């Protein structure tokens, strides 16, 4: 009984502090309302799109204090998918992502700078292929509100461009394909 | 020399299948190593795997035909000079060669079809993907494909050494009867 009471007290305390801080959201991986995609030029004539199917993450967000937002994402690089078995095998190899040695890629934000009513530069450290580099996500707040199933959701999109060589991916795909664009769209469920 | 095997020697069909496949296996092994090392802008970057897979599929068909032919034909008797351990060792090596080749073509097929794409046979027709989306299918099949390819080449080298030993040191008919040559001993059939 005592334990339950202590638990309740702790719970309400946390709820209280939660109200003072930005709300925490978990990226809706289960419902697949989130995707991490990439886009790279093919020879300069067209583009190949691919995605990472397996990742997890969370963010904190308060529309009144957007600068205090933060986001963490962890990607299972083994889940790279460009809809081509042989190419995906090659992407997993040490010519590209070396997933055997570096099974996860992470992004941890370090700062948010608003650039408009609903746009922001999200600075953070991206670790990919074992290399950690600061990157800036060009982010956009899409919307938030109640969902029809009793929860509360908020969603964002973001893009950034990476130079493959910066992350020790030295395989040369030609002059038009030195960079890859990351395109991220995530929806979080408030906890 | 007859088409079928006899107790004395391999027939024409067995001989042709043996050397065609030996050529194919050594060729595909070299092609496989070479093609996975090509740069993206190599003119062979897309054609080399295309040929590797098409020839590999032909080899798979030849392997089945060969096993059927093998079961439908007598195996030539061991030569008089063959010792017991030579007979059992060579039988074991032959069995392993067949087995490894079977797994190699299967694993090669499983790499390419891991996500549901079929394999083009010289552009004439597409062999459909039947088994897809096993866990880590392409990577596991790829590892099996590579290591068994290395093993089959090692085993074939041992096998060829044995054949050369019989030919050059023992000076018997072992290699001659796989080459379709006139035999030194015994009656022709
Ligand atoms: C149906 C028959 C076959 C198919 C469909 C096939 C398919 C493939 C594929 C897709 C690759 C590329 C793997 C990658 O991207 O890393 C490959 C590589 C290779 N294959 Fe085959 N193959 C077949 C038969 C054979 C045979 C009979 C041999 C010879 C023993 C062989 C030897 C090799 C070798 C040595 C490699 C290079 C492996 C590496 O360096 O990773 N393949 N094969
Ligand atoms: C990758 C290459 C090769 C493969 C996969 C291969 C495979 C085989 C197999 C499976 C057999 C057993 C045939 C049966 O079922 O009775 C055989 C027999 C034979 N092979 Fe090969 N072989 C290869 C290369 C060679 C080479 C290079 C030589 C000669 C230098 C050779 C010489 C022979 C001979 C003489 C026999 C008959 C053995 C006997 O009478 O017991 N083979 N080979």
TrEMBL record, chain A:
InterPro entries: Lipid/polyisoprenoid-bd_YceI, TTHA0802/YceI-like_sf, UPF0312/YceI. Pfam families: YceI. Its main location: periplasm. It is found in: Periplasm. Residues 1-22 form the signal peptide. Keywords: Periplasm, Signal. Residues 24-189 form the Lipid/polyisoprenoid-binding YceI-like domain. SUPFAM superfamilies: YceI-like. Gene3D superfamilies: Lipid/polyisoprenoid-binding, YceI-like. Belongs to the UPF0312 family. Type 1 subfamily. This is UPF0312 protein EF096_03830. It comes from Pseudomonas neustonica. The lineage of its organism: Bacteria, Pseudomonadati, Pseudomonadota, Gammaproteobacteria, Pseudomonadales.
From TrEMBL, chain B:
It comes from the Bacteria. Its cofactor is heme b. SUPFAM superfamilies: Transmembrane di-heme cytochromes. The keyword RNA-binding does not apply. It is found in: Cell membrane. It is a multi-pass membrane protein. PANTHER family: CYTOCHROME B561, CYTOCHROME B561 HOMOLOG 2. This is Cytochrome b. It comes from Pseudomonas neustonica.
